[in-house]
């Protein structure tokens, strides 16, 4: 379960901010990294910066991760300069250390980096309306389009086999067999659900490995709260959380975005009757995404678009369930059985998509 930590503020002064540190507050959002807002006095003005401790138990090669981040943000920035419609858009801007590095390691072994704070922006954990869904999908489409010129082999895998359904199932099997925490008995119905859909969970990765789906750079963590909107919430202005940018398929991103945006409830919603697909939100995602990326997708990608949300929800459910059975080592949890509840909700998401299989496919064709 979550434990509070001392923030090593002396580390922050090693970044080339050119000001005087004032205070810090934690932003409790994601499940993996630790994110802080630092308040600094710079040139007589109070300015905010993002200080982030990157989870090196999850991301085991931080130099490679930061090298990827530099490649991706450089390309996104150059695309924004070339595009006329990108005036209000931005991308992450790394503040180097005073010695010119993009990150540092503190005495406790933790890795730190600093970003410019993107001001006058909002983000959503739950999608409030179809316009927000459209915009999130459109910025994803622009992101994928901008990165088409970066060969996937130029980026290292920051988490190997991240959306590899078959390998996620292998890890799940091992967790169930070992049952090191004795928790498997409480999760029998979830385990059975996962096992009943094993082949489906591996379907996208099989197509990618066989080469019937093209390998492209993808974001791989397309949660709605990784998109920043302008203050009025009517325009997506930045895609965040670029740590998992690596070789993949656009289907991982489209699927993940639909998974967590077209079902307007929390990812750990305990009331499963609220886990319902909002087809208006789904339609808006299809439209926003197609407007930017539609013309660049292959027949096979188009065919699998509507299937991808189900695969992504299943894989995430299996990951939550594996982590629960292993003792909650990966995802940060906030209460007992949190990962089991998250798995249960994702499996309900899978059921909700299954029930709408035909309608979801018809919407993409339209
Ligand atoms: P995690 O991997 O833990 O999800 P993120 O990089 O997504 O970490 O950051 C967590 C939250 O911090 C985001 O959802 C966003 O609200 C905020 N955030 C991150 N980077 C910035 C930034 N450069 N400017 C403003 N807010 C940011
Ligand atoms: C994690 O870091 P965050 O909270 O944006 C996870 C994603 C999951 C997501 C589920 C590196 O994302 O894969 O889809 O939780 N990121 C990593 O909420 O494992
Ligand atoms: Mg995030």
Provide the domain count.
Answer: 2
| Assembly classification | single chain
**End-to-end CA span:** 45 Å
Bound molecules: adenosine-5'-diphosphate, 2-acetamido-2-deoxy-1-O-phosphono-alpha-D-glucopyranose, magnesium ion
How would you characterize this protein structure?
The chain is an alpha+beta fold and 366 residues long. The protein has 2 domains: 9-59 and 91-119, 2-Layer Sandwich (Phosphorylase Kinase, domain 1); 130-365, Aminoglycoside phosphotransferase (APH), C-terminal lobe (Aminoglycoside 3'-phosphotransferase, Chain: A, domain 2, Alpha-Beta Complex), CATH 3.90.1200. Helices cover 43% and strands 14% of the residues. The chain is built from 13 helices and 11 strands. It has helices at residues 9-12, 62-82, 130-146, 165-178, 188-196, 198-201, 203-210, 250-261, 279-293, 299-305, 308-326, 338-355, 357-365, and strands at 20-27, 34-42, 45-54, 94-95, 104-105, 111-116, 121-122, 216-218, 227-230, 236-239, 246-248. Strands 1, 2, 3, 4, 5 and 6 form a 6-stranded antiparallel sheet that branches. α3 (130-146) packs parallel to α9 and α11 (308-326) runs antiparallel to α12 (338-355). It is globular. The site of adenosine-5'-diphosphate has 16 residues, from loops.
